[in-house]
């Protein structure tokens, strides 16, 4: 899976590769669209379940350029066999969890812990994005973290954020998270954040030279769509 499609960035080091995993309907595609357009999704955004993987180029301009190649994966059970193909190809992992659908939390936890057992993902920074925060104000992120047993994950940096594609709450935090790791990759620094992972206390120790603005603007380039067919589809 090459990324010769990127026109903003000149070298591999300039591009952060980000895989977005999570159950179906958990808001992956909506999040990616927000990042790509720097805009909220419309309330009438129609849910079309993603098949295969869509590679989306995103260019964040936060006074410094951040070039992302985001892999938006299908989250349905029969699509998840594709996820491991992206493990080696990604610098960062985003995992979306629907913060409203409490019935799905157990399944989300199972899918997340299955991911974390894969040796190709060890040491890869992970951001858990609790989506749809607009649907219930003042959602307690600690309760969500506990429901997912995140305290059991001790072997890698994990951060969490509440996010809404409708209001863009959490957007700046996510962009800042990218900015940090983009800086690390560009300067060959180890991708580690030794900070309290609770979103309420995320204070990224960003290098001063980044001089981040509080808001970001983005533009995008053409996406490529990578269709990975399931075995059944190949037979037909
Ligand atoms: N209210 C609200 N709805 C959201 C939000 N994010 C996503 N949705 C809705 O949730 C549904 C599913 O969103 P998608 O982004 O397509 O979900 P997905 O994780 O990509 O789903 P799959 O492609 O099937 O894996 C859509 O109807 C969205 O409009 C959000 O932040 N707030
Ligand atoms: Mg999708």
Automatic annotation (TrEMBL):
GTP binds at residues 22-29, 75. It comes from Rotaria sordida. PANTHER family: ADP RIBOSYLATION FACTOR-RELATED. Mg(2+) binds at residues 29, 50. One of its GO terms (molecular function) is GTP binding. Keywords: GTP-binding, Magnesium, Membrane, Metal-binding, Nucleotide-binding, Transmembrane, Transmembrane helix. InterPro entries: P-loop_NTPase (IPR027417), Small_GTPase_ARF (IPR024156), Small_GTPase_ARF/SAR (IPR006689). The chain crosses the membrane at residues 161-183. This is Uncharacterized protein.
């Amino acid at each position: 899976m090459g990324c010769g499609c990127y026109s903003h960035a000149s070298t591999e080091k300039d591009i952060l590769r980000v895989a977005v995993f999570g159950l179906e309907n958990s808001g992956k595609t909506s999040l990616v669209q927000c990042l790509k357009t720097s805009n909220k999704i419309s309330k009438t955004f129609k849910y079309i379940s993603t098949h295969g993987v869509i590679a989306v180029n995103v260019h964040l301009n936060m006074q410094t350029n951040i070039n992302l190649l985001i892999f938006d994966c299908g989250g349905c059970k029969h699509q998840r066999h594709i996820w491991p193909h992206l493990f080696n190809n990604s610098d960062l992992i985003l995992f979306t969890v629907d913060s409203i659908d409490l019935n799905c939390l157990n399944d989300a936890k199972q899918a997340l812990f299955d991911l974390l057992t894969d040796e190709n993902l060890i040491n890869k920074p992970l951001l858990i994005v609790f989506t749809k925060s607009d649907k219930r104000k003042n959602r307690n992120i600690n309760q969500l973290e506990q429901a997912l047993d995140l305290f059991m994950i001790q072997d890698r940096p994990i951060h969490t954020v509440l996010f809404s594609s409708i209001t863009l709450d959490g957007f700046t935090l996510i962009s800042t998270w990218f900015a940090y790791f983009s800086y690390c990759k560009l300067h060959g620094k180890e991708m580690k954040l030794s900070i309290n992972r609770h979103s309420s206390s995320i204070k990224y120790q960003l290098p001063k030279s980044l001089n981040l603005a509080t808001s970001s603007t983005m533009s995008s380039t053409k996406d490529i769509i990578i269709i990975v067919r399931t075995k059944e589809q190949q037979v037909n």
